[in-house]
Structure formats: structure tokens, C-alpha cells
Write a structure and sequence with these properties.
Shape: globular
Distance between the termini: 41 Å
Number of strands: 10
CATH class: Alpha Beta
CATH superfamily: Vaccinia Virus protein VP39
Oligomer: single chain
Number of helices: 10
Length: 260
């Protein structure tokens, strides 16, 4: 990771929570890579199928799909540090012929690369842009960029109980979220069938967020004088408080939808 040397940042780099918290992860969400692969396998797409992985992070999912199934994967990511990870991963794993890196915003990239046989979106619920503020709107947008039949491998936070309004307001500052039935209903209204769904167990949820928090706290310990460290600590405290309080109300769902 540029700027990250043995747990320390190079001079001039500003620390970012996500860059530090997700170091070494294949999936930057509380879901197993094996579950992602199993869901993708149900689509039964042939090798060479065009797959768009939106918000690809460090490229773990993109690489797994290209390696295991032979898909031609376009890893769409706006963050330049994450992009550098994907480029390095594709080179190191010998996947450059099957894993293309696209740096940019999701709406423009989706429009340019359509039609896709599958869109993968794990924790990328701003996929349709800031003006689309409903689950139904997201899936209506996805329906326009898919071949027929086409698939959406969708994973995101799920409201599992009626949440206190302050918690809902804080969580929804970062995106659009729904209940399990809310995600399914939004997809159904846009012409999708739900082929599979898997809710991550609480132990996986705990391990993911506890691990992310631990990595950031360890980084703070060895970088006390870095510019921006106070902002990073505040961000870590906010995320920790939100998800500690939110655990009774939130889960993570992995869905495979098909547009016939």
C-alpha cells in the first residue's frame, strides 16, 4: 500500500480509515470469500463472461472471480490507493489478461462498460450515484446495464429490527439501506428473481468489525505524531460506537439476483 511501510505512513500521506482497516482482506465486508464464490457459481456463467465489480476495494473479490471462473472482470474503484492494490494483485497473481482495473465513479463506468453479464456490488450502495436514494432506484439502474439474462451479486447491510431513529440517521448518512424484504422487493420490482440469499452469522459480523477496529488502533499506537491522526482516531471512535450500538439492529445479506 502506498505510504504504508511496516505499519507506518510515509511523510506527507494522510491516514485514511479504510486504507488501514482493510489491509490484507479479500472482502472488505462481513462476508466470507467462499460465500461470494458459491453465490457466483449459481449463476453458471461461462468463462469469459463480462463481470463488473463495483467498489472493488483491494480487488480480492475481482481476483477470486477471475481466477476461479475465468470471468473477464472489470474492477471499478474510485480510490487511487485501492486501485494500486488491484493493479498489484492482478500482476502478482498473473491475472492481467482477465482482470482490468477501472478507476472512476460507478455510474459513468457502468454506462460505459454495459452490457454486463453480472454486476457485483458488495457494500457499494451508491452504485447509481448520489441522486438515487432508494433501493428500488438502485435496482432500476442496475437493470439497464445488464445483458439478458443478467445477474446481480449484491451484498450490503440489512436492517434486522426496528432501529432507534438516531441510529438510522447516522447509518444512512453513508448510503441506502433496507431490510431483507426491502432489498428483495426492490429487486423484484425492477424485474429480478432472487436465486439465493445468505445472512452472515453474528460471529462473522463481530470478527470483521473487531478486526478492522484492531488494525486501526494498532496503527494509531505506532503513528502518534502523524498529521491527521486525531481525525483518524475520531473516525475510528465513531465507527466503533455506531456498530457496537447497532449490532442488535443490523446484519449483512449476500444475494444473487437474476434478470430474465
Amino acid at each position: 500500500m502506498p505510504g504504508f511501510r511496516g505499519g507506518r505512513y510515509k511523510r506527507g500521506m494522510v491516514p485514511d480509515y479504510h486504507h488501514i482497516a482493510y489491509v490484507g482482506l479479500d472482502v472488505a465486508n462481513p462476508v466470507r470469500i467462499e460465500a461470494v464464490e458459491a453465490a457466483a457459481e449459481r449463476a453458471a456463467l461461462s468463462a469469459g463472461s463480462r463481470v463488473l465489480d463495483v467498489g472493488a476495494g483491494t480487488g480480492g473479490v475481482s481476483a477470486a472471480l477471475a481466477r476461479r471462473f475465468g470471468y473477464h472482470v472489470h474492477a471499478i474503484e474510485r480510490d487511487r490507493v485501492m486501485v494500486s492494490h488491484i493493479v498489484a494483485r492482478a500482476r502478482n497473481e498473473g491475472l492481467e489478461d482477465r482482470l482490468a482495473v477501472v478507476q472512476g465513479q460507478a455510474p459513468e463506468a457502468l454506462e460505459r462498460l454495459a452490457p454486463a453479464d453480472m454486476v457485483v456490488a458488495l457494500g457499494s450502495n451508491r452504485i447509481a450515484g448520489p441522486d438515487v436514494t432508494s433501493a428500488a432506484g438502485i435496482f432500476e439502474t442496475l437493470a439497464t446495464v445488464l445483458a439478458r439474462p443478467g445477474y446481480v451479486l449484491w451484498g450490503d447491510l440489512v436492517w434486522t429490527a426496528e432501529a432507534p431513529e438516531p441510529l438510522r440517521q447516522v447509518v444512512e448518512l453513508s448510503g441506502v439501506y433496507a431490510t431483507d424484504e426491502g432489498w428483495r422487493g426492490a429487486a423484484r420490482s425492477a424485474g429480478f428473481d432472487c436465486l439465493s440469499v445468505e445472512m452472515s452469522p453474528q460471529s462473522l459480523w463481530d470478527a470483521f468489525f473487531d478486526g478492522a477496529d484492531a488494525r486501526v488502533r494498532a496503527w494509531l499506537e505506532v503513528n502518534p505524531g502523524v498529521e491527521g491522526v486525531d481525525t483518524l482516531r475520531l473516525r475510528a471512535d465513531q465507527i466503533r460506537a455506531t456498530f457496537d450500538f447497532g449490532r442488535p439492529y443490523l446484519g449483512f445479506g449476500l444475494y444473487l439476483f437474476r434478470q430474465a
